[in-house]
Amino acid sequence: MTAGAGRPGPPGTSRRPRALLVPAGVAALAAGVFAYVGTVDPNAPGHYPPCPFLFITGWYCPGCGTLRTMHALAHGDLAGALGLNPLAVATIPFLLFWWGRWAVRSWQGRPVRTTLAHPAYVWGFLVLVIVYWVVRNLPFGRFLAP
Fold it and tell me: Which InterPro entries match (predicted)?
């Protein structure tokens, strides 16, 4: 056994870079996917499979238009992205906030707990997604369809 094994080193020395490996990996994966979707146009047929729910039912799911939304955002077209899937666009700042909070807390060595994941918020978001799903398929909600 090596000397010092099992004992932590001075606070904040070698653990910090390792603590950021997973958040950095998630960021790299997300950036890679975003770059790929920004490069390979989802509007051109044959690059991506169709939405299974849309294919089977003919109705839009909450995620329909998200690939084209990300493509529009990659090209700086916020208005076009909002026209394709406003829920996806509205979700991005929250995802960035939670990723940033996760990365900072990992760097600080603090637990990555959040009160934002309270069951009431999770259920509220689920209800919002279901309402969005239904409304975008109704005649008066066509403005939400991609």
Answer: DUF2752
